[in-house]
């Protein structure tokens, strides 16, 4: 009997063990958070691994080791954790761009990233914005220093060909940075597809419990990673040790959560497809979704977010108010399902009735029943 070749641990095994120290008798599998503003520091500070709490912390090191292993299991990479996803985003943009450079940002991505445009321009950086996917991303690369993209995008769930974008960016002398928040490293690995930076908000599915703020960047470029660490220390965008430890603890259940969320999201999307009041339904896992073929080629899991549009603002508000299991809240990726009328923030180019639904780990049948009853109520 032949056996398949050994290719290393699976996603679940890797997530459970990533970043843990070697087993030692009487010691915990995951050491507790280290609370320290300073460390004993005799002699030359350059010889010390830890000297001051704004520069390094053992709890950061453990999580960074784990994240590098998840985002780039087969090649050395460097992870840097931050106080939030926006801190991580800002670090990439402001360490890699200088006055006179051009950055290409998405028109349909996270509105917090778009909020950085005036700040980039204030430093003399030119910003071009293009929609996710399609030829305009490639056309904008001429003269660009960095292309920032999300795939799938938030909240529209468009998908772009990351390998092709990486090749095109590098051919133009540009860098590719990918916001991997929605997919997670168990859904796709941008660095393996050629990206220079994989960034994510650890607030979302990575930690998954809606109880912390965190961000991170992973790169295979050691100099770029050192620049990120220097930026983090200089502006103080450091994560708390407790938040960092909680995020690392949560990795052990990452595969269980994202698998359950993905299957629930597909079940919910399938049920919503039958509703006449629902238009613009998107989820990369749906066979008829415009992004499905590409997502199937580059993603291993399709994520927890489903987006759709109801006829108008009032219908959407009645729908959200009628939900009993699904919370009316922002963010996504948590174990508890949430939904919101995204246009209320004013930063996304979406219809007034546009709903972003983050599917949690509840029973799929209960979620479908809750959504169906709320739609019945909203449409009277």
TrEMBL record:
<dbReference type="InterPro" id="IPR015424">
    <property type="entry name" value="PyrdxlP-dep_Trfase"/>
</dbReference>
<dbReference type="GO" id="GO:0005737">
    <property type="term" value="C:cytoplasm"/>
</dbReference>
<dbReference type="GO" id="GO:0004123">
    <property type="term" value="F:cystathionine gamma-lyase activity"/>
</dbReference>
<comment type="similarity">
    <text>Belongs to the trans-sulfuration enzymes family.</text>
</comment>
<dbReference type="GO" id="GO:0030170">
    <property type="term" value="F:pyridoxal phosphate binding"/>
</dbReference>
<feature type="region of interest" description="Disordered">
    <location>
        <begin position="1"/>
        <end position="31"/>
    </location>
</feature>
<protein>
    <submittedName>
        <fullName>Cystathionine gamma-lyase</fullName>
    </submittedName>
</protein>
<dbReference type="GO" id="GO:0019343">
    <property type="term" value="P:cysteine biosynthetic process via cystathionine"/>
</dbReference>
<dbReference type="Pfam" id="PF01053">
    <property type="entry name" value="Cys_Met_Meta_PP"/>
</dbReference>
<feature type="modified residue" description="N6-(pyridoxal phosphate)lysine">
    <location>
        <position position="204"/>
    </location>
</feature>
<dbReference type="GO" id="GO:0019346">
    <property type="term" value="P:transsulfuration"/>
</dbReference>
<dbReference type="InterPro" id="IPR015421">
    <property type="entry name" value="PyrdxlP-dep_Trfase_major"/>
</dbReference>
<dbReference type="InterPro" id="IPR015422">
    <property type="entry name" value="PyrdxlP-dep_Trfase_small"/>
</dbReference>
<keyword id="KW-0663">Pyridoxal phosphate</keyword>
<dbReference type="InterPro" id="IPR000277">
    <property type="entry name" value="Cys/Met-Metab_PyrdxlP-dep_enz"/>
</dbReference>
<feature type="compositionally biased region" description="Pro residues">
    <location>
        <begin position="22"/>
        <end position="31"/>
    </location>
</feature>
């Amino acid at each position: 009997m032949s056996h398949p070749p050994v290719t290393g641990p699976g996603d679940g095994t890797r997530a459970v063990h990533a970043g843990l120290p070697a087993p030692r008798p009487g010691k915990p599998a995951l050491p507790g958070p280290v609370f320290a503003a300073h460390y004993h520091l005799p002699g030359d500070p350059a010889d010390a691994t830890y000297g001051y709490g704004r520069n390094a912390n053992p709890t950061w090191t453990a999580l960074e080791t784990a994240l590098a292993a998840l985002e780039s299991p087969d090649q050395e990479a460097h992870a840097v954790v931050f106080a939030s996803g926006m801190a991580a985003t800002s670090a990439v943009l402001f360490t890699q761009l200088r006055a006179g450079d051009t950055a290409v940002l998405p028109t349909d991505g996270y509105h917090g990233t778009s909020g950085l445009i005036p700040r980039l321009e204030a430093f003399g950086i030119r910003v071009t914005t293009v929609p996710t996917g399609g030829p305009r991303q490639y056309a904008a690369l001429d003269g660009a220093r960095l292309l920032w993209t999300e795939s799938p995008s938030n909240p529209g769930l468009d998908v772009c060909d990351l390998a092709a974008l990486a090749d095109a960016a590098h051919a133009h002398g540009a860098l590719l940075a990918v916001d991997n928040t929605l997919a997670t490293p168990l859904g796709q690995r941008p660095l393996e597809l050629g990206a220079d930076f994989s960034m994510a908000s650890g607030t979302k599915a990575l930690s998954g419990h809606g109880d912390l703020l965190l961000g991170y960047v992973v790169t295979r470029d050691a100099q770029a990673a050192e620049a990120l660490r220097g930026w983090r220390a200089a502006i103080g965008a450091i994560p708390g040790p407790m938040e960092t430890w909680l995020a690392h603890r949560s990795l052990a259940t990452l595969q269980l959560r994202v698998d359950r969320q993905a299957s629930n999201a597909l079940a919910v999307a399938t049920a919503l497809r039958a509703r006449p009041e629902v238009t613009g339904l998107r989820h990369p896992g749906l066979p008829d979704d415009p992004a499905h073929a590409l997502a199937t080629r580059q993603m291993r899991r399709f994520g927890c977010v489903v987006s759709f549009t109801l006829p108008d603002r009032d219908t959407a508000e009645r729908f959200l108010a009628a939900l009993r299991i699904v919370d009316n809240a922002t963010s996504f990726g948590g174990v508890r399902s949430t939904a919101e009328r995204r246009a209320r923030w004013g930063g996304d180019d979406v219809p007034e009735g546009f709903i972003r639904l983050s599917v949690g780990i509840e029973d799929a049948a209960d979620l479908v029943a809750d959504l169906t009853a709320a739609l019945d109520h909203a449409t009277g």
